Automatic annotation (TrEMBL):
GO terms for cellular component: mitochondrion
UniProt-recorded name of the protein: rRNA methyltransferase 2, mitochondrial
GO molecular function, one term: rRNA (uridine-2'-O-)-methyltransferase activity
PANTHER family according to UniProt: RIBOSOMAL RNA METHYLTRANSFERASE, RRNA METHYLTRANSFERASE 2, MITOCHONDRIAL
Top-rank taxon, per record: Eukaryota
Coiled coil: none
UniProt cross-references to Pfam families, sorted A to Z: FtsJ (PF01728)
Taxonomic lineage: Eukaryota, Fungi, Dikarya, Ascomycota, Saccharomycotina
Stated family: Belongs to the class I-like SAM-binding methyltransferase superfamily. RNA methyltransferase RlmE family.
Catalytic site: K254
Residue ranges occupied by any Ribosomal RNA methyltransferase FtsJ domain in the UniProt entry: 50-297
Length: 309
């Protein structure tokens, strides 16, 4: 009797497992077919952009004009991998602008962009962001970071040796001096496209980062889950903007729509003078994603009050 029951359960398990496996394979095939036939995916390859997401930021900026080549803007790109938004920002801030990408995942930044692999909610990461945009770091600004020293390009070994013991070098690398030598609000624009799916090609991750690749680089396909996780990441981006964005600075953040997005918009309105929802044409019709644009950050913000609602 028990044997028959087990056999029936086993048959049911195998009966369910096969369709689920085939469903997943079929879903992957549909995704690949959609990608190959997608205009923006093809155009991204033609223009040497890292993903089709670049066109979304172009459309958003074309409408709201938060980048300005006539000013020396500093841009912080959160969850920057694979780097498409950083590419657009680098093009639109002009030659004197600076773009820094931050991601908990490993990713080589586009040319002209620097990056930090770190958790943006870490106080240490925020101090590194302030350091990057400080006038001391700008003395050594290059297109690529040195593979060992981080802040210096290959070929500058002699210069590095000469300045290693100078006061300026110590001010750059002595963390005890960072707070007094950097701006509290160094960033002009914060952009966040966290959740953009990308293939991992290098590097590793571990459980200490809360399974970041699974959580931040992939949507689950379950609308409610994706919505709440995007709210979580949106709040992280908003906290970063409160802590690092200059008054009158601008903010762009992706969200997956759901019942909590109005509360998120309410929080944004406590931080920015103008808040807009926008869905670019390059965003697929079936996608639940929407972009919130916060313009002209307010001067006085009570962070506790922002998140009380």
């Amino acid at each position: 009797m028990f044997l028959n029951v087990n056999i029936r359960w086993g048959a049911n398990i195998w009966g369910l497992a096969r369709p689920l496996r085939f469903i997943r394979l079929n879903s992957q095939s549909r995704w690949l077919d959609r990608q190959s036939n997608d205009y923006y995916t093809r155009e991204a390859k033609v223009q040497n952009l890292r993903s089709r997401a670049a066109f979304k930021l172009m459309e958003i900026d074309d409408k709201f004009h938060f980048f300005n080549k006539d000013k020396t803007q500093r841009v912080l790109d959160l969850g920057f991998a694979p780097g498409a938004w950083s590419q657009v920002a680098r093009q639109r801030v002009g030659p004197q602008g600076m773009v820094l990408g931050v991601d908990i995942l490993p990713c080589d930044p586009p040319r002209g962009v620097h990056s930090i692999q770190a958790n943006i909610l870490s106080a240490k990461t925020q101090e590194l962001v302030r350091l990057y945009f400080s006038r001391y770091f700008q003395l050594y600004k290059n297109d690529e970071l040195h593979k060992h020293h981080g802040y210096f390009q290959d070929g500058l070994e002699d210069e590095l040796h000469n300045i290693r013991d100078t006061e300026t070098y110590r001010e750059i690398f002595d963390s005890s001096l960072i707070t007094n030598k950097t701006d509290k609000y160094p960033v002009d624009v914060v952009i966040s496209d966290m959740y953009e799916c990308w293939p991992q090609t290098t590097g590793f991750w571990n459980n200490l980062t809360n399974l970041a690749y699974y959580r931040m680089a992939n949507t689950s396909g379950v609308a409610v889950r994706d919505h709440y996780q995007s709210i979580d990441l949106g709040d992280a981006a908003l906290v970063t903007a409160i802590d690092l964005l200059k008054p009158q600075g601008n903010f762009v953040c992706k969200l997956y729509t759901g019942k909590e997005d109005k509360l998120f918009e309410k929080r944004l309105r406590k931080v920015f003078q103008q808040v807009n929802r926008f869905k670019p044409d390059s965003s697929r019709n079936e996608s639940k994603e929407i972009y919130f644009v916060g313009l002209r950050k307010k001067a006085l913000i009570d962070k506790l009050d922002v998140f009380m609602s």
